[in-house]
Structures are given as C-alpha cells and as structure tokens.
Amino acid sequence: MIPQGWSLFDVSGGAGEAAVRPQPEIGDGHKFWPMAWTADGSRLAGLLVRANGLTDGVAQFELATGRYARIVERTPATWLIPVWLRDGRRLLLRDRSGISLVDAATGRTKRLLEVSGYFVGYSLDVTKDDRWITYTETATDGDIWLLTLE
C-alpha cells in the first residue's frame, strides 16, 4: 500500500531491499509537492499546494532534519517550477510570466527573463555547469484556415 502524502524511496540497498519512507506533512493547510533536488542531495525544493490545487509558493525540505522552510510566497498560481543551481543556495523559478533567480536563504528574487506561455509549455532546466537554461515558450496565437469542399 502506498502512503498518503509524499515519500522517499531508498534504492541504495539494491533490488528487493528498497523501502518507502513517508515524510512529514508541511501543515498550514498545504501539501508539499517535491520537485527538485540540490546537487548534494541534502534538500528538496517543492511546491506549496492548497487543497484547491492552487500553488502558494515554494518551500525546501531538509533531509537530515525533516524540516521545511518557505523560500518564496506567491499569489496563488496554477503552476511554478523550481530548479536548483549547483551551489544549493540559489534556484531558478519559472512561473507564468518568466524565469527568476531566487536566493533560498533570503527569498530575494530577481527576474532574469520574461517568458509567456501556458501549462502545456511548462518547462525549465539548467545545465550541470549552470551556464545554460532551457525553457519552452508557448502561445495561443494561430491561423484560422477555411476550406470549402466541392
């Protein structure tokens, strides 16, 4: 049986010895949806999600202590994408209007790039050397074609 909430699945012991470890809830009427590991594997960034499915921001979970800390609070949104940089202190955050650089310790945010798009274009990643960012730009613009069959 799979537990409610989120869990860690330890596969270091090899096949047949993996164990599911349920993690504590964040509380405050939110669920934590883990999305991105730090390079050293010590913390996870994830979304703070309300019961109605809206996202209120981003938090981090520290594996060693089992504690959460809020990083960014946002007006309820339908989606956010956090991606850690190698230093484990900063992360990139994609939302509906662009990509920002966020200091996880202070919550200070700096917009790097204005990007539009919809959930279908939800994407963000960074190379291992933090040199390149990739994202998808989507739009609802299009052409209307009319055809008359004879």
Descriptive report:
- The chain has a four-stranded antiparallel β-sheet with strand order 3-4-5-6, with no helix packed on it. A four-stranded antiparallel β-sheet has the order 7-8-9-10, with no helix packed on it. Strands 1-2 form a two-stranded antiparallel sheet.
- It has strands spanning 7-10, 19-22, 30-37, 43-50, 55-62, 67-77, 81-84, 90-95, 98-103, 109-114, 124-126, 133-135.
- It has no helices and twelve strands.
- The protein has a single domain (25-135), classed as TolB, C-terminal domain (Neuraminidase, 6 Propeller), CATH 2.120.10.
- The protein starts with 6 loop residues before the first strand and ends in a 15-residue tail after the last strand.
- 20% of the residues are buried.
- It is globular, with a radius of gyration of 19 Å.
- The chain has 150 residues and is mainly beta.
Descriptive key words:
single chain, mainly beta, four-stranded antiparallel sheet, 12 strands, 0% helix, 47% strand, globular
Instruction: Calculate the mean pLDDT score and round it.
Output: 85
Structural class: mainly beta
Q: What composes the largest sheet? A: 4 strands, antiparallel
Can you give the helix content as a percent range?
A: under 10%
Which outline best applies? globular
Architecture per CATH nomenclature, i.e. the level-2 architecture: 6 Propeller
What is the straight-line distance between the termini? 60 Å
Strand order of the largest sheet: 3-4-5-6
Approximately how much beta-strand content do the residues carry?
Answer: over 45%
Query: Which H/E pattern describes the elements?
Result: EEEEEEEEEEEE
Task: Tell me the name of the CATH homologous superfamily.
Answer: TolB, C-terminal domain
- Could you say how many structural domains there are in total? 1
CATH fold-level name: Neuraminidase
CATH class descriptor name: Mainly Beta
Oligomer: single chain
